[in-house]
Write a structure and sequence with these properties.
The chain is 60% helix and 0% strand. It has 455 residues and is mainly α. Helix 10 packs antiparallel against helix 11. It is found in: Membrane. One of its GO terms (cellular component) is membrane. Keywords: Membrane, Transferase, Transmembrane, Transmembrane helix. Pathway: Secondary metabolite biosynthesis.
Length: 455
Amino acid sequence: MLPGGDMLYAELLLFQVILTVTPILPHGQHNSFWLASFVILASLYLRILQSSAGSPSADWGLALAITPQLGKAFDFFVLHPTETRQLREHKSHQDQARSNGVASWAKKFLLSMEMIHTPRGVGWNWEIPYVCYVGTESKRSFLLSRTWRIVWYYVLLDALAPLVPTRASGPLAPLPQMSDGSQDPAYSYDQLRRSAATWALTTLLPAWAYAVSAYVHLWLVHTGPAALAVLLGLCAPADCPYVMGPVGAMASLRGLWGRTWHQAARRQMTAIADAIGRRLLGLRPGGRPSAYLKLALGFFLGGATHAVAGYMATKASKASLAVAAADDASGPVRNRWDILPLADPTGAMRFFGLQLVGVVLEDAVFALLLRFGVLREDWRRNHMANGRAGYGKDMQWWWSRRRGESSVRIEKVLGYAWVVFWLSLTLPPYVEGIRQTGVMDSKLAPISIWRSRSE
């Protein structure tokens, strides 16, 4: 039986307390103290991985929450303790100046929580260089814009729920083959076309429904509490940037993974990659080898984080199936999930590895197009320059915004098509792996607008 319940919650609470309190304790001036704190956190992390919150979806979310936090602790406490102290003292001085006195323990605790738990940097651009703050928003305009988008995204999430694949909906089919394997000349183009259409409806549509629902769900999970904090006066609008980037930035794979998708774990991933590149390999920061090392390690760590989530979710699935098998003597249900590899049951490492391959291919194509004069510039590098005021506003500044232009630039249209094509090839096997764990069996929207309670 998997340990859980009160013990799991106690370990989680202790993990969060150590993570948050360590930077503000008096002994925090000594690196050895911070290193010891990280060792304790790592031990708690390993214990938590062997526990279960009771369902695959809960274990999935738990692993995706604490794994980046352990990475952030490694960054703060082991790799950059001096910089962390300087950042803490800088923010502490700001708080003292505002309060005309010594910062209280409560303020120091809130500061530490801000440093540890904020996904994209709150109020200061230390974490993600591509976060653009909209400092001109008033409290009223902030609340109005977030409120209507919360409503719209919730309706969208609820509408997508029937399309998201579950264990009850059956497996996603693989890509249709060019022949039926029997060398039968009767296997015609029409048969292939029908197979492709069936695959698009039964595999591609559910896979994309899951991807869009994941984007919307993460946006809601962050923006709901952020809007409430601004409403109550706990945060200023400028302290709550968008957790997800604009959909319009996904005109390239680099734009998708570096702008559109959340950057919650970017800081710790790049910090680890920088440490390996500089300290172990002696690579020059900013050079091409260093840049591609950071890219490769970023996707590797992203894959490892999601592999851990799949590992925890699979344990919960096996436990629930074992109970079902004990209650049902009609069939060997308990063996159904033995086909899942223990280390990476969802195929996360394969999926994120393929994203790395896609980015490298994309870079190579851009290099060739620039070399032969087909493109005048690599617009992926500077597409943020003219979009700061509209960051987070969906596709606005990704349509042609230059003065005197009225049509969409063809290379960006082709870029969107490329991203959709690559994800359509690589996403379905990963979504199928997640589906098998039972993560998507839970309701996306607690209260359904489109479906009756009886459904």
